Amino acid sequence: MQPIRLIRGFLSVGAWTLASRVVGFVRDVMIAAYLGTGPVAQAYTIAFSLPNMFRRFFGEGAFNTAFVPMFAKRLEAEENAHGFAEEAFAGLFSVVLVLSLIAHVAMPWLILMQAAGFKGDERFDLAVTYGRICFPYVLFISLTAMLSGLLNAGGRFLAAAAAPVLMNLILIAAMLLADRNGWDMGMAMSWSTPVSGIAQFFTCWWAAKRMGFPLRLRRPRLSPDMKQLLRIAAPAVLAGGVVQVNLLVGRQIGSFFDGAISWLTNADRLYQLPLGVVGIAIGIVLLPDISRRLKAEDTAGGRHAYNRAAEFALFLTVPAAVALVVAAYPLISVLFKRGAFLESDVGPTALALAIYGVGLPAFVLQKVLQPLYFAREDTRKPFRFAVWSMVVNAVAALGLAPFIGFAAAAWGTTIAGWTMAAQLWLGTRAFGEAAELDARLRHRLPRIVAASAVMGVVLWGLMQLLEQALLTQGTRYLALAALVLGGMVSYGLTAVALGAFRPSDLRAGLRRQR
C-alpha cells in the first residue's frame, strides 16, 4: 500500500482551495460592485445555482460518494481500475447529457422551484435566460468532478484542486471585458460559465491521462460494477436531494425579501472560505485514504487518519467560527461596501454571516465524519440523517420567518448543520475502534476551544480600538488586516501556550507517511 500523506494532502488541497475561494471572493466583490443586489445580480445568482445544485447530485456529491471508494479499492488491489473508471465516465456522461436537454425545456419551472418570489417581475425572465445559458456547465463540471475523484484516489491532488481557480478567473475576465466594452454584464457572466466548465474538464482530463488513465467515451452499459455503483449511489442521490431541499427552503424565504438573496449569497461566500479550505480539503483527502486502509485491513491507520483529520479541522475552524461571529460587521463592510453595494446592505449581510459562523464547525465535522460511512460503502445511514436534518431545517426556517424575516433561512441552515453532525457522530459508534477518539484529540479539543475564546476577546478589543479606522475609506483595509493579524497571532500564541498545538506536529505530518 502507498498511503496518502494526510497533512501534506490537506495543505495541498487546502492551499489551492484557498486560492480558488480568494479569487471567487474577488469575483463576488466585483459582482456586488457592478450589480449590487439588483435584479440582474439576483437572477444570475439563481441561474448559476441550478447547475451547481445538479453538480452536487452527479459530480462530487452523490456520484463521487460511491465512485471514489470503489475506485480506490480497485486501485489498491489492482483490479482493472481503468476499465471501471471508463464505464463510470460513460454512464455519467449519458445521464447528465439527457438531464441538460430536459432542463433547457423545463427552465421556467426550475426557476420557480428556486425562487417563486421572482414570478411576475423582471427577475424571472432574466433568470430563465441566464439559466438556459449556464446549465450546460453541469455536464462538464460533473465529468470534471469524477476525474477529480479519480486523481484524488491516486494521491494526485494538484490539478483537481487548482481547476476551480480557472472558473473564477474566466468569470472575472468576462466581467472586466463587459465593463470595458459596454456588453450586457449578466449575459457576459452567463456565457462565461459553460466556458469555465470546459476549461476545468480538459485540465483534469489531461492530469488523469498523465496518471495513466486517459479515459475514453464508450457506449454506456449496465455491467455488474455499474449496478453496484448505482446501488451505492442511489441513497446518496436521495441525500443530495434532501440537501437541495434545504437550500431551496432558504432561497424561497429569501426571494420574498427584497435584496435577501444577495445578502444570503454574499454571507455564504465568505463563510464558505474556511469551509472550503478546511472541510472540503479534508473530505477529498480522507475518503480515498480510509477506503484504501479498509481494503488493507489497517484499522489502526484508519483511526489515526480520522483523528488527525478531526484535530486539524477543529484547530482551524473553531477560531474561524469565532472570528466570523465577532467580526462579521467589519468583514462585510470593508470587503463588500463599494459601488452598488450600499451601507444598508452591510448589516443584513453581516447578520447572516454571523449566523452561518455559528454552524461552521458542524459543516466541517460533517466532512470529517462522512468518509467513515462512505469508505464502507454505507450511504443509507447518511441519507436517513439528512432527512431528519431537512425536517429540522424546514421547521426552523419556515417557523422563524414570520418573526425574524430573511435571517430565518440562515438559522435553519445552521441548526440543521449541527443536527446532521450530531447524528453522524452518534452513528460512528457502530464502527468500533476505527471511529474512537484517541487520547491526543481528547486532550487538545478543550484547549482549542479555550484558545479560540481568548482570540474572540482580543478581536472584540481590537475592533473597539480600530473602530474609526475601519470606517474610513483610506485606512479600512489596513485596519482590517491588523484585525485579522491580531486575531491570528493571539490564537496561535494561546494555542501553543495551552498545548492545543505544537509546531513539531506540522513538521512530522509533512515528513512522515502514516
UniProtKB/TrEMBL annotation:
Location(s), subcellular: Cell inner membrane; Cell membrane
UniProt keyword Cell membrane present: yes
Topology relative to the membrane: Multi-pass membrane protein
Primary location class: membrane
GO molecular function: lipid-linked peptidoglycan transporter activity
Segments crossing the lipid bilayer: 88-110, 130-150, 157-177, 189-208, 229-250, 270-291, 312-336, 348-365, 385-404, 410-427, 448-466, 478-501
Gene Ontology cellular-component terms listed: plasma membrane
Keyword set, alphabetical order: Cell inner membrane, Cell membrane, Cell shape, Cell wall biogenesis/degradation, Membrane, Peptidoglycan synthesis, Transmembrane, Transmembrane helix, Transport
Role noted for this protein: Involved in peptidoglycan biosynthesis. Transports lipid-linked peptidoglycan precursors from the inner to the outer leaflet of the cytoplasmic membrane.
UniProt family annotation: Belongs to the MurJ/MviN family.
HAMAP family: MurJ_MviN (MF_02078)
Name of the featured protein: Probable lipid II flippase MurJ
Record organism: Paracoccus aminovorans
Name of the coding gene: murJ
